[in-house]
Amino acid sequence: METKPPSRALAIALCFVVLFWVSPFIWLIANAVDPAANGSLRVPTAIGFDNFLEALSGNAGRQFLNSIYIAAGTATLTVAIAAAAAYPLSRMVIPGKNAMLWLLVLLRMLPSTGVIVPLYFTAQSTGLLNIFGIIISLTILNLPFTLLLLKNFFDTVPIELEEAAFVDGASLWQIIRQVVMPLSRAGLAVVWFFAFTGAWNEFMLPLIFSRTEAGFPMSVGLYAAFGQNGAIDYGFLAAFSIVYAAPVVVVYFLLRRNLNTGFAGVGVKG
């Protein structure tokens, strides 16, 4: 059965929709490379990369590194702790473990602002009002959901493979490292990406825990860039926004193959 090509009116409408969606990105790029950017959508009279250099130097450069430390540190620590707890929960018979997991998830559904006060005073009393304290706090907040996700991924690994490896003389560590982890790689990638993007976009905790501009991550620095010193530097703001968005996009493409498989295999069992 032949399909009719779209009508001219529909094609024009779709072009307007595409233009509407891409116009913010065109504005960002045009202002980021325009040394005389004034916030308007126009063709730059000259092209330069000074705005990007400014967005990667000074306080802005330190904020970029802070974001990398916080996001990568939180994602790695979350995966390590969640995997260490999720595997025994998947393999051991523990009365009420599903109820316990769902209770943790329900507690995580509370807004982070509801627990930020005890987190702040705990960090203050332990000297963790710094980047390391932010990483620990975000890891704690991520654990309930990531624990449930990884437990369900480990459930999909056939236990017969582990039994066969055990019969062949493999130790528990060898079974986990050579059998379970390779088969759960997609799930680990999903959890790592989930924790990375959540920490990268986190605003409230870094704002409360970090007191100096040099200690802010880019999520807070982007907020501070609006109206700084009573005026907005549109070229710097556009370049800063592009630099802020780039790492998440890069991480997605690096993990894309595993993420596609992992998201397809995500399931929540009762």
Write up this protein:
This protein is mainly α and 270 residues long. It has a domain at 68-217 and 244-264: MetI-like fold. 72% of the residues lie in helices and 0% in strands. The two termini are 44 Å apart. Mean pLDDT is 83; it is low at 263-270.
Topology record:
Layout: H1 8-32, H2 50-55, H3 58-91, H4 97-108, H5 116-126, H6 131-155, H7 159-167, H8 172-183, H9 185-201, H10 204-209, H11 218-225, H12 234-254, H13 256-264
Might you state the CATH topology name of the domain at 68-217 and 244-264?
MetI-like fold
CATH architecture of the domain at 68-217 and 244-264: Orthogonal Bundle
CATH class descriptor name of the domain at 68-217 and 244-264? Mainly Alpha
Count of alpha/pi helices = 13
Computed Rg: 23 Å
Q: Give the assembly state of these chains.
A: single chain
Beta strand count: 0
Flag low-confidence runs.
Answer: 263-270
Please bin the fraction of helical residues.
over 70%
Instruction: Note the gap between the termini.
Output: 44 Å
| Protein structure class | mainly alpha
- On the 0 to 100 scale, the average pLDDT is 83
Proportion in β-strands: under 5%
Please summarize the sheet with the most strands: none
CATH superfamily of the domain at 68-217 and 244-264: MetI-like
**Which word captures the global form?**
globular
Order of helices and strands: HHHHHHHHHHHHH
